[in-house]
Amino acid sequence: MAMEGFDDPGVFFSDNFSESQGDGQSNLASKKQFLKFIKEFQEGNFAYKYRDALKRNYLRREYHLEVNIQDLAGYDEQLADKLKQSPGEMLPLFEEAAKEAADEVTFPRADGETTVEDIHVTLISEAAPTSVRDLKSEQVSKLVKIPGIVVAASGIKAKATRISIQCRSCRTTIPDIPLKPGLEGYQMPRKCNTEQAGRPPCPLDPFYILPDNCKCVDFQNLKLQESPESVPHGEMPRHMQLFVDRSLVERAVPGNRVTVIGVYSIRKMAKLGRGGEKGAVGVRMPYLRVVGLQVETEGSGRTATNLTFTQEDEESFRRLAAQPGVYDTFSKSIAPSIFGSEDIKKSIACLLFGGSRKRLPDGLTRRGDINVLLLGDPGTAKSQLLKFVERVSPVAVYTSGKGSSAAGLTASVIKDAATRNFVVEGGAMVLADGGVVCIDEFDKMREDDRVAISIAKAGITTTLNSRCSVLAAANSVFGRWDDSKAEENIDFMPTILSRFDTIFIVKDEHDEARDIILAKHVMQVHMNAAADTAAEGELSISFMKKYIAYCRSRCGPRLEQ
After folding, report:
1. Which residues contact 246 (CB under 8 A, 6 or more apart)?
2. Alpha carbon distance 226, 211 (integer Å)
3. Can you tell me the distance from the alpha carbon of 161 to that of 251, in angstroms, rounded to the nearest whole number?
4. Residue 375: enclosing H or E segment and its boundaries?
5. pLDDT tens digits, one per residue of 10-51
6. Residue range 449-468: average pLDDT?
7. Distance from C-alpha of 493 to C-alpha of 512, rounded to nearest angstrom
8. Helices 77-85 & 24-40, crossing angle to 10 degrees?
9. Which residues lie closer than 8 Å to 302 by C-beta, 6 or more apart?
10. Element containing residue 177 per DSSP (H, E)
């Protein structure tokens, strides 16, 4: 029976879907164009922008190059269009071209540095960003630009870019197999087809990876949540998986507002358990392979991304600031339909603009944020003030104390399903970093939830950035303020009360004359609702929002003598 297997001709297959197809000519031409662009693009003052940047980065041993798509479009419109339409093919060519350019610009290198490192090309774009909700199937494998907030980040893992595999039985090695970028895997060959005379053929699935001969790069998974300004009312914010590699890892941490440019790609669904996902062959999970990432201005006063200041805006800001009594004007414009309570409005104006953070010589910091607590009777428009502040502050989160726990306000530690380790997700205060958190019904929060922000759960101890002002409203213990029981009205610990810089006790006093004025004011508001006329000298909400954002980003207040 030595004849068995003689009619098994082996399996011959043609690889129709490989990357290598596509006319090599046009690819070569594109690569030459990219190389020319890197070497010859110059700005108005005759500085070779990308050549110098490449040389500078390379000598610093930072092997990456940041390219502005507008520059590329100005240099060669078709090339930029090609890059936008098929970034999967063009980016590797761009990186090869960058590698060649790096070889040329750094030519007399130090001894021992014979090989040129790979250059990671990242893109930045001035184009208007699209929202996460607008990513439809037409955008798959095109370049898209999305703003949002990073809410979770995985650890840094390694991904192979080239692997070598070896057959178990006959020790044949296949070296240097390239892997696709992104979350794509590699399908191991099923058969080893090196026939040697006089020995049995290799069994099925004989190959294993040689880990020593792999080239690896770092990568990280981020979870991006769309920015709160663009979420339609009453909907949950959407999330997007980001795949970040090489020089872009560790660039953003949870809580940062970022704008990412990436290739909207799809990955094969992970097989879950035995049997996997039956029937769903063509269904893919979308994710974004990031090729450019910009962290919006760090530190406090990070404004909403869509606020840009024109010259006229700055002029009007300067005019307003030069007026005498600008403080009164501004505090009058806060919730103008609410009668009275001037002191509260003034303190809210201070809270919106914020103080300046002081760093002392011994490394301690004094917070520059002003916290305000409104205590008092029901029906004194406390919640309306909070709602107004949420509308007028550039970065604001409104939350009610009844349903929010400490984890929801500060941060929660959740178990990541994919990597089975713990990651930190920021809560309301972290997302409002550089803004205002309005907490309504502060007295209904559970006792142990009103604490400072540091997390120690599951072996993760960390402190997140939450440089935000807190505006809290609370009722007294008995529902109404009871004058006969002096400090029993306040149910807060002294530790909490010491956090608030100004505490207002809002009383609903029984005074006939005042109630008549109040009733008249309310009737005026209702009668003039249709006319909607702003009183003289008031600022509109959008103007106030811009003005606050401008002041927070440009000014640091100092005390006078």
Report:
1. 64, 120, 217, 218, 219
2. 39
3. 21
4. strand 372-376
5. 566 555 554 444 556 788 888 998 888 888 888 777 788 888
6. 55
7. 36
8. 120
9. 257, 296, 395, 433, 434, 435
10. strand 173-178
> What is the secondary structure of 125-159 as a DSSP string?
--SPPPPGGG--GGGTTSEEEEEEEEEEE---EEE
> Cβ(470)–Cβ(505) under 8 Å?
no
* pLDDT tens column, 203-254: 888 888 888 888 888 888 888 888 877 788 788 888 888 889 888 888 887 7
Q: How far apart are CA 369 and CA 356, in angstroms?
A: 7
The structure's pTM equals 0.60
Query: Rounded to the nearest 5°, which phi and psi values hold at 147?
Result: -90, 160
Q: Which pair of tokens denotes residue 61?
A: 């041993």
Identify each DSSP E strand in 7-155 by its residue range. 64-68, 120-124, 143-153
Ramachandran region of residue 378, left (φ > 0), alpha (ψ -120 to 50) or beta? Answer: beta
Q: Would you call 443 exposed, middle or buried from its count of C-beta atoms within 10 A (0-12, 13-18, 19+)?
A: middle
Kindly write down the DSSP assignment for every residue of 395-454, as one continuous string: SEEEEETTT--HHHHSEEEEE-TTT-SEEEEE-HHHHTTTSEEEEESGGGS-GGGS--S-
Listed residue (84, 110, 389, 90) closest to 261, CA to CA: 84
The tokens describing 56, both together, are 């500078």
Mind listing the pLDDT tens digit for each residue in 380-411?
A: 777 788 888 888 877 777 777 666 666 666 66
- The dihedral sign for the CA sequence 347, 351, 352, 358: positive
Q: What share of the chain is helix, strand, coil (3-state, %, to 5)?
A: 30, 25, 45
